[in-house]
Amino acid sequence: MKKKVAKLTLVSALTISSVIAYTASTTSPVYAQGSLSELNKEKSNIENKQNDVKSKLDDSSNKLNDIHSEQESVETEIKKLNTSISSTQVKITEKKEQISTTKEEVKKLEKQIEEVTARIEKRNELLKERARSYQQTGGMVNYLDVLMGSQSFSDFIDRVGAVATIVEADQTIIKEQEADKKLLEDSKAELKSKLSSLETMLADLESLSSQLNTEKKAKDKLMAQLKEEENHVHAEMLSLEEEEQLLKDQQVAMEKAIKLEKERQAELARKAAEAERQRKEAEAKAAAERAATQKAAAQKASATKSSSNKTTSISSSSGGSSSPSVSKSSTSVSSGNFTRPAGGGYLSSGLGQRWGTFHAGVDIAATGAVPIYSAADGVVIRSYNSSSYGQVIFISHYIDGQQYTTVYAHMRDGSRLVNAGDVVSKGQRIGTMGNTGDSTGQHLHFELHKGPWNQAKSNAINPIGIVPL
């Protein structure tokens, strides 16, 4: 049997230690006698365990409710974070588009700057030419020569207008030069500021996005932890529910045991009363016979006028020895308490470490419809479908004052013939060999526990040499 650690956390399952049953004749007990007080004490222990399991189930249920509440709170926070992340991502996209647009404007401005720069250079050349002219002619002196060289008054007027135009043009060039330089500097500063502002906002948004994603990851991690905790609590509750069901089955079996014990005691009382009646009847009969003998002897003595007290005494004694006696019979405990649990097959695996885990029983493998039998007289504790054992039956036995528990695992689906609380006899068919649960290949996984079964299987003993295999 390829077996994993059982999921059940059964702290003290299968603890019936004094189950009483009867053979078909109902005249001799299947088990050693167990007192009603012991059975009732065991029943009380089971009830206490049931209360403890119920308390643990209530605690687990409350814990699960707390986890669900926390999950709802975290889920709400995650939704808010997702909304913030989406909103931030939209803003980041917008800022990137604005930066892209601004960079396009920068490119356009760069072309404008090239044009302005070209104009400035042209003006620089013109101004340089003006400066050279001023240097060579002495500046305004040249304009005086122009005016003084007039041929007439009208020519003078024309020359004054021309000089004024030239001076005004120079001033315009200077103003335009200064305006272009200022425009250039202002445009550069404006775009630089705008680009810097957008990049700062983008960096802030990306930082916010990173922070939000970090928070979401933390919340996702917390949610995963809560889910894991939820699964753990669910597993605990399933285990406790299994234990609760097992204790219920155990209680049913115990009530059956108490009923059988009462019947046994009633039968013993009836037999004792019958024996007492027979004893009294025999004594009365013997007394009557003695009286009759004595009377006959007295009549004989009177008739023969022979009074022999010795003879009368002997005659009386002889009459007493002829009375019947009642003998009591006792049932000896058979050495063959167990029988082979499988109707065929071979021992394919023994008890001990296997594949890194403890194999708590033996495996008997066979093909075909192989019947499974109860290894000894007992009471069925559990009969159900387990995730690991598959179709399995637990039976409690009480032999020579010692409790044993046997386990019959991996039986065929639909083949279990007994239920919890049923009294079974040694060799009674209880199912058919199969391959259910955590199993590879048809076989019977058989366990023998000296005492109750527990999750750690600490009571498991090697059945070889005890149970015919």
TrEMBL record:
<feature type="region of interest" description="Disordered">
    <location>
        <begin position="270"/>
        <end position="339"/>
    </location>
</feature>
<dbReference type="InterPro" id="IPR011055">
    <property type="entry name" value="Dup_hybrid_motif"/>
</dbReference>
<dbReference type="Pfam" id="PF24568">
    <property type="entry name" value="CC_PcsB"/>
</dbReference>
<feature type="compositionally biased region" description="Basic and acidic residues">
    <location>
        <begin position="270"/>
        <end position="288"/>
    </location>
</feature>
<keyword id="KW-0175">Coiled coil</keyword>
<dbReference type="Pfam" id="PF01551">
    <property type="entry name" value="Peptidase_M23"/>
</dbReference>
<keyword id="KW-0732">Signal</keyword>
<dbReference type="GO" id="GO:0004222">
    <property type="term" value="F:metalloendopeptidase activity"/>
</dbReference>
<feature type="signal peptide">
    <location>
        <begin position="1"/>
        <end position="23"/>
    </location>
</feature>
<dbReference type="InterPro" id="IPR016047">
    <property type="entry name" value="M23ase_b-sheet_dom"/>
</dbReference>
<feature type="coiled-coil region">
    <location>
        <begin position="92"/>
        <end position="137"/>
    </location>
</feature>
<dbReference type="InterPro" id="IPR057309">
    <property type="entry name" value="PcsB_CC"/>
</dbReference>
<feature type="compositionally biased region" description="Low complexity">
    <location>
        <begin position="289"/>
        <end position="335"/>
    </location>
</feature>
<feature type="domain" description="M23ase beta-sheet core">
    <location>
        <begin position="358"/>
        <end position="459"/>
    </location>
</feature>
<protein>
    <submittedName>
        <fullName>Peptidoglycan DD-metalloendopeptidase family protein</fullName>
    </submittedName>
</protein>
<dbReference type="InterPro" id="IPR050570">
    <property type="entry name" value="Cell_wall_metabolism_enzyme"/>
</dbReference>
<feature type="domain" description="Peptidoglycan hydrolase PcsB coiled-coil">
    <location>
        <begin position="113"/>
        <end position="186"/>
    </location>
</feature>
